[in-house]
């Protein structure tokens, strides 16, 4: 058979590729080379059978064929450890969903027909079943590689294609071996492209490039992955429909279909729960990002506006006092020009941290814009608020200071009017010489 020569050549190309590109982990490649050598040896033994009818070459071919499976599986497992050291729950569940669907398909169209074949002895039946069992294990390993969250090289894609083709190649051979077809043609048509993929994967220059983690994304939302999962989950009803239509309404594999459907349903629900949890976590992170200042880590203008409105409503019901202060770092532009913008950013970060330490649990510090910050006091008398602001002012790092304007809420005015009075007081503090706290003397306006 022509494919036999391709098999030996592919094994040789893998060895050449390892010597040429020197990958960090050579074990998977040498294991694949050994597996292909054993498989091609099995092809060779099987090809000689017609010329030597007295010698049981079918049984002789089974030995290298079956020995190739541990080598294939060891290679896939070694590659999996190398390229997918960090696997998430989503990737594992995706692999389980696809593997469950494929296992049902293999059971219905390959394994069960072998088990129902009354012409086979027990030993022959076990021997025939070993092949699809090995193919299923190899397929599961490949799906785990396929669903790993990593950036794949060309060599890695070719290798996954080769392993998948190897599994389907043998399943096709097993499924058609008892049919009236030309087995040599089956082996040549399926084997030559498979061996070509093995050789191409080993000889490509990217075979020694380690896998890189994929860019952060929502798990499992790749269109190709969704198609793969959809096909896998539809295999159970597809097998049910196929057997129902071909068997006159009799579904011989109803137990296997039922079990697979239940497993697939539970896996999909588990997968969906993971997606919902991830989306909830990301939504919480987005809310935090939307309400926190990226530079200082304290609440931003949006969070300030929301919190001020909420506290005003609460103070209106409870009758608690509410005081607002706007503070502005003195001569911040001069500081930036003298020491650079990175130093200015650091001053803002250090200042926010120092001021929060003196503010206490009941106060709120937010970045209002640029070098301007806002402070909110609830249930705090005016004298106490002034004392807190003076402590904060003295704690300003790098020998700097700030000016602050303070306004006490009258109970009726709008947030904008209250902020406007605090802003007027701030400008009064700057005009009075900076590095001080001024209290608004303007009467509060009605809302």
UniProtKB/TrEMBL annotation:
<feature type="transmembrane region" description="Helical">
    <location>
        <begin position="251"/>
        <end position="270"/>
    </location>
</feature>
<protein>
    <submittedName>
        <fullName>Diguanylate cyclase (GGDEF)-like protein</fullName>
    </submittedName>
</protein>
<feature type="transmembrane region" description="Helical">
    <location>
        <begin position="6"/>
        <end position="22"/>
    </location>
</feature>
<dbReference type="GO" id="GO:0052621">
    <property type="term" value="F:diguanylate cyclase activity"/>
</dbReference>
<feature type="transmembrane region" description="Helical">
    <location>
        <begin position="61"/>
        <end position="80"/>
    </location>
</feature>
<dbReference type="GO" id="GO:0043709">
    <property type="term" value="P:cell adhesion involved in single-species biofilm formation"/>
</dbReference>
<keyword id="KW-0812">Transmembrane</keyword>
<dbReference type="InterPro" id="IPR029787">
    <property type="entry name" value="Nucleotide_cyclase"/>
</dbReference>
<feature type="transmembrane region" description="Helical">
    <location>
        <begin position="226"/>
        <end position="245"/>
    </location>
</feature>
<dbReference type="InterPro" id="IPR000160">
    <property type="entry name" value="GGDEF_dom"/>
</dbReference>
<feature type="transmembrane region" description="Helical">
    <location>
        <begin position="129"/>
        <end position="147"/>
    </location>
</feature>
<dbReference type="GO" id="GO:1902201">
    <property type="term" value="P:negative regulation of bacterial-type flagellum-dependent cell motility"/>
</dbReference>
<keyword id="KW-1133">Transmembrane helix</keyword>
<feature type="domain" description="GGDEF">
    <location>
        <begin position="320"/>
        <end position="442"/>
    </location>
</feature>
<dbReference type="InterPro" id="IPR050469">
    <property type="entry name" value="Diguanylate_Cyclase"/>
</dbReference>
<feature type="transmembrane region" description="Helical">
    <location>
        <begin position="92"/>
        <end position="109"/>
    </location>
</feature>
<feature type="transmembrane region" description="Helical">
    <location>
        <begin position="29"/>
        <end position="49"/>
    </location>
</feature>
<dbReference type="GO" id="GO:0005886">
    <property type="term" value="C:plasma membrane"/>
</dbReference>
<dbReference type="Pfam" id="PF00990">
    <property type="entry name" value="GGDEF"/>
</dbReference>
<dbReference type="InterPro" id="IPR043128">
    <property type="entry name" value="Rev_trsase/Diguanyl_cyclase"/>
</dbReference>
<keyword id="KW-0472">Membrane</keyword>
């Amino acid at each position: 058979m022509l494919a036999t020569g391709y098999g030996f050549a592919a094994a040789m190309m893998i060895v050449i590729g390892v010597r040429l590109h020197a990958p960090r982990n050579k074990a998977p490649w040498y294991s694949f080379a050994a597996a292909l050598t054993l498989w091609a040896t099995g092809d060779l033994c099987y090809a000689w059978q017609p010329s030597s009818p007295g010698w049981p070459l079918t049984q002789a071919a089974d030995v290298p064929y079956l020995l190739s499976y541990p080598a294939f599986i060891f290679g896939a497992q070694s590659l999996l450890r190398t390229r997918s050291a960090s696997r998430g729950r989503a990737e594992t569940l995706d692999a389980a969903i696809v593997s469950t669907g494929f296992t049902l398909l293999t059971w219905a169209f390959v394994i069960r027909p072998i088990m129902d074949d009354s012409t086979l002895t027990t030993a022959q039946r076990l021997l025939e079943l070993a092949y699809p069992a090995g193919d299923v294990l190899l397929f599961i390993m490949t799906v785990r590689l396929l669903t790993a969250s990593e950036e794949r090289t060309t060599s890695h894609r070719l290798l996954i294609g080769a392993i998948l083709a190897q599994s389907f190649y043998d399943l096709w051979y097993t499924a058609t071996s008892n049919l009236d077809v030309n087995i040599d043609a089956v082996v040549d048509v399926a084997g030559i492209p498979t061996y070509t993929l093995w050789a191409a994967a080993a000889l490509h220059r990217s075979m020694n490039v380690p896998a890189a983690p994929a860019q952060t994304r929502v798990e499992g939302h790749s269109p190709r992955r969704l198609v793969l999962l959809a096909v896998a989950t539809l295999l159970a009803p597809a097998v049910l429909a196929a057997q129902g239509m071909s068997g006159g309404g009799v579904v011989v594999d109803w137990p296997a279909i039922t079990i697979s459907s239940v497993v697939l349903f539970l896996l999909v629900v588990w997968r969906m729960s993971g997606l919902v949890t991830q989306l909830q976590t990301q939504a919480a992170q987005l809310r935090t990002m939307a309400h926190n200042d990226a530079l200082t880590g304290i609440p931003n203008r949006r969070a300030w506006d929301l919190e001020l409105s909420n506290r005003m409503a609460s103070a209106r019901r409870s009758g608690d006092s509410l005081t607002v202060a706007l503070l502005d770092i003195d001569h911040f532009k001069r500081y930036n020009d003298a020491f650079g913008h990175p130093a200015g950013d650091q001053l803002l970060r250090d200042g926010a941290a120092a001021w929060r330490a003196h503010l206490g649990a009941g106060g709120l510090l937010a970045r209002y814009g640029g070098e301007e910050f806002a402070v909110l006091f609830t249930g705090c008398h005016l004298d106490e608020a002034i004392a807190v602001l003076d402590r904060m002012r003295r704690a300003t790092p790098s020998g700097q200071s700030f000016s602050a304007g303070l306004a006490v809420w009258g109970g009726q005015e709008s947030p904008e009017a209250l902020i406007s009075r605090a802003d007027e007081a701030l400008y009064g503090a700057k005009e009075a010489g900076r590095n001080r706290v001024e209290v608004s003397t303007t009467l509060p306006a009605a809302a």
